[in-house]
User: What shape does this take?
Amino acid sequence: MALEVQPHGVGVNALMPSLPVATPGLLVQTPVLGEEVSLESFCEAAVRLLLEPASRTTGRVAYSEDVLRPELGRRGWLGSDGRAGAPVS
Assistant: This one.
């Protein structure tokens, strides 16, 4: 789908959190998260990805901290819970 709409200036991307996002619902279930990404930080990553021109970024699956700090390279899931995954391109 991403390539079908790219010529019309529409980018299709997916954003995953690099760590659990501290949403009100999650905090009710798990009051102490340990490692987390703030809701504001995740939203900032979403806005940055949305502002990328479709001609440059489409069909991308990205982790939030990789979008916010591209100078550190692709790092993927940052949690220490044993679910560390390889970066997704």
